[in-house]
Amino acid sequence: MNVEPRVGAEGASGWGRGGALLPRYALYGDSSGSTVDFIHVERLRDRSEVFDWSIDAHTHAGLHQVVLLLSGDVRAELDVDSHVLIAPAVIAIPAGVVHAFEFEPGSSGFILAVPEGQLEGSPIEVWLRSRLFAAVVTLSLRDDDTLVDRLESLATEILREQETVDIGRVATIEWLTWTVLVLLARESDRFHETRGGVVGSDLFGDFQSQLEDHFAEHWRVGRYAKALHISESSLNRVCRAVAGATAFQLITRRLEIEARRRLTYSTVPIHRIARDLGFADPSYFARFFRSQSGVSPREFRARHQPAVTSPRPSSSGT
Question: pTM, whole model, 2 decimals?
Fold first, then answer.
């Protein structure tokens, strides 16, 4: 997967100022550095076909993304994990997650971008975040044709409203989007239920949200438990039920994922990555990373850092 260097573009790529190999787009391929602070929907082929159905590794600036795949299949690289999904399926991607796609040519569906702030202030904000945007969610919809039809209809209506100038357009787009998110969150709930992890999944979502905010501060398990108003043993019980791992293992895993991101997609010196991730001593960071990955940060970067080339739009691209 090739990426376009965007060194020194504050807020447009990577992490902070300079050293970024990983593009951070408002919408994929947009090199303006602008942000999107409104809901946006487009047909999957509108952008994917321009790039020969191959979307290189990137992140989005303050945007959650929902991919509704109605036909075809996709190989999705989501942070350090790979997924192959066959339509109909959904991928919900939290803001900041590194992702790349290889779609089967001719695939159809919709891409929905939702600003992080769009969820704020709702009485079901925590529930939606925990089900869809606390971590990557992939869902197969092959057993529910009715849900697929509803989602396709709603996405089509959002697109139609987006292209009009009618009174109430913005409010209608928001209502339709909320409906899409609620339907998907319900489906995510059913998925957890079939996996036996529904008990405590609310708390697990809250824990994941806290983890996103504080992993670089190296909070201990007890501090997360205190913030959630539960005991350490209760937090560990919830984490095992939902994720099959202890809270400490999930905290460590989140820190490792962020280290892998920055070693792969930035040219920032390793000692600065260590500092930014809360390690006062670079040698301690090196020991931590080796204990998790089996290699030193320097060795990992040498093996995984991508070639510095530009995205590959087809002749019809813009």
Answer: 0.67
